[in-house]
Design brief:
The protein is an alpha/beta fold and about 240 residues long. It has a single domain (about 10-235), classed as Alpha-Beta Barrel (TIM Barrel), CATH 3.20.20.70. About 45% of the residues lie in helices and about 15% in strands. The chain is built from 11 helices and 8 strands. The radius of gyration is 17 Å and the shape is globular. Bound molecules: ligand LLZGTKA7. This is Orotidine 5'-phosphate decarboxylase. Pfam families: OMPdecase. Keywords: Decarboxylase, Lyase, Pyrimidine biosynthesis. One of its GO terms (cellular component) is cytosol.
């Protein structure tokens, strides 16, 4: 299978983690052509931001609906069908077998790609233990990645720290979407498994999700352009 090359600009997914639609639209205008791929998650989605998925898609942008679905299979399937009608490119579900199976079946033929969230990038081994898991981060990510692949999921959300290992055994067409990306010197915040944009690309990430380092920058457009430049350079060095 020949994989389509991904435009370096499309590899940066900017998380529109903002309180309302007005703030999001002002940010989108400010970012202009520097950003081609946006993510809408809980904060904006629950503040009336889901119609923005269609608006952005109609304006030629790609949209990642980061809704992290997890429910009984029938509810997940109907939810996936609704999101597919919005024109999103990616939708997240948690990496539980029933949930992934329902989402993979419901998205077939729609053009919507399902990403399974393996282990949140704000978790380390201690957090997993506190949540009742016996496996550590790298083993749980690997186990969930294998299940996701077997169930026909299109891609994985993980930290760039896991990308190189996952690349050894997942199909090349399965994409790796990695939050937990921090340009050198920027605040880590609540993220625990992080890498710089250049390192994330070198390790095998396909798409980098970045929120606060762009949203909270004095000049968000310059911040986004600097990350795209770092991605472009890292790809050239590969
Ligand atoms: O494991 C995960 C899954 C999703 N996210 C989301 O990505 C962005 C990251 O934002 P930053 O401000 O760059 O930390 C955010 O919307 C998360 O909900 C994640 O971080 N980790």
């Amino acid at each position: 299978m020949t994989l389509q090359p991904i435009d370096p600009r499309d590899r940066l997914i900017v998380a529109l983690d903002l309180p309302d639609v007005d703030a999001a639209e002002a940010m989108i205008a400010r970012l202009g052509d520097s950003v081609t791929f946006y993510k809408i998650g809980y904060q904006l989605g629950y503040a009336g931001g889901l119609p923005l998925v269609r608006k952005l898609a109609d304006a030629g942008k790609k949209v990642f609906a980061d809704l992290k679905m997890h429910d009984i299979g029938n509810t997940v399937a109907r939810g996936v069908e609704s999101v597919a009608k919005l024109g999103a490119t990616f939708l997240t579900v948690h990496a539980y077998p029933q949930t992934m199976q329902a989402a993979a079946n419901a998205s077939k033929g729609s053009g919507l790609k399902i990403l399974a969230v393996t282990v949140l990038t704000s978790y380390d081994n201690e957090d997993l233990k506190a949540a009742g898991y016996q496996l550590g981060v790298s083993d749980l990510v690997a186990a969930r990645a294998q299940q996701a692949q077997a169930l026909g999921i299109d891609g994985l959300v993980c930290s760039p720290e896991e990308a190189a290992n996952l690349r050894k055994y997942i199909k090349p067409e399965m994409c790796l979407v990695t939050p937990g990306v921090r340009p050198a010197g920027s605040d880590v915040g609540d993220q625990k498994r992080i890498m710089t944009p250049a390192r994330a690309i070198a390790e095998g990430s396909d798409y980098l999700v970045v929120g606060r380092p762009v949203m909270e920058a004095a000049d968000p457009k310059a911040a986004a352009e600097a990350i795209v430049a770092e991605i472009t350079q890292a790809l050239a060095n590969k």
